[in-house]
Amino acid sequence: MVNVQGPAPRGDLVPSGIVGLLGTQGPISRVEIARVLGLSPATVTQVTKDLIGRGIVEELESVPSKGGRPARLLGLVADAGVAIGAKVTADHVAIVTVELDGTVRSSTEHEYDPGATDALDRLGQILAKEVAELDDRLLGVGVGVPGAVDSQASGIVDAPTLSWQAAPVGPVLRAAIGTPVLVDNDVNTLAAAERLYGIGRDHSAYLVVTIGRGIGCGIVVDGGIYRGANGGAGEIGHIPVWSSTAGTTKATGSGQLLGVEEPPCTCGSTGCLEAHIGAAGLVRTARATNVIGPRGTLATLLRAATTGDSRARQIFADAGSMLGRALAGVIHTVDPEVVVLMGEGVDGWEFWQTGFEPSFRRSLLPARKGVPVVVEPWTEVQWARGAASLVLASPFDSAGNGGEQSRLVRARLGAPGINQGMNQATNTGTTP
């Protein structure tokens, strides 16, 4: 197992680093804490004594040790602090409250119109109501959006599917709810959650690829999320592709394919991978080829495939083949240890897979043909839990992705009462 914690925490990172380790790996001994975080036994003893006194950490049962007296395990007091995660979509906001160990305590859903003139104010009102219903244990709020975010700390968003351009999501929400707010691309939030609670605990380089309304990719390198120069890394849905589907479309004299060739994309371009095999692209193809009626939806197409319609299954297989070719290119660029597939589209993965596997493996270099692809079961709560992970990952933010907002979260973990003065944590960066 790789050490996903990164460099040894110092200063204000020490208590939050210990809390984060207990939250992600479960009860462990002081000796193991010192080994994993690179701290001296004396430091661990001093800091954990303080955390126990504040009701954040508790001593559990003893376990046998190699010589000497049995080692006492330490564990989190699960309700010592919580994070809120919000996943913003084109028609609703999903919100969860998550405990330090990643347990989802509650989930809600609110109708939402991101295209409204007061959309950001409305989002602030929704979150303010959720915050008001909590007690004084909130550490911060994480927000996942389907678009590019300049940085988690500032939270300025470009999201064509939401009709947002340079939207000041972070500043508006901090002013509205008075807590630290971290904002990132929604697929990056899933990658953060995998780092804390999933496959990222065993691998330091991996991809999280989502299929559904769009096609996204979170890239983790050396245990950290790679965001690129402007926060837009991983937009594989906008790779230009050419469709070579057969049996589901009809070629014209110009060599173009009716129904699927050069379809328009929400980004303003045409022929993007997402435009072909995102939810809208699949529906467009199915309607154009009369596999479903003019009012048919993706659910209609999936039902047809499930009941044995060979044409419906071919549409998914063709989509899987196109995804496989595109993803092989990403593998050659990033060289991950493993790929995780997630998102709404995995509900029909058995139909995608028939085209994906041969196309993907055939397109890889010999040294990469064995890269594992893990398909994870999907619920929408995972999107919002991923957003909450931005807050819960703050103890490991040695790269400084969360800036002042991550520091404010860490201060809550290391300060008496966790949230005394929490309403001072606005976009001005005042320490609570």
Automatic annotation (TrEMBL):
SMART domains: HTH_CRP. Keywords: Kinase, Transferase. The keyword Kinase applies. Residues 20-75 form the HTH crp-type domain. PROSITE patterns: ROK. GO terms for molecular function: DNA binding; DNA-binding transcription factor activity; kinase activity. InterPro entries: ATPase_NBD, HTH_CRP, HTH_MarR-typ, ROK, ROK_cs, WH-like_DNA-bd_sf, WH_DNA-bd_sf. Belongs to the ROK (NagC/XylR) family. This is Putative NBD/HSP70 family sugar kinase. The lineage of its organism: Bacteria, Bacillati, Actinomycetota, Actinomycetes, Propionibacteriales.
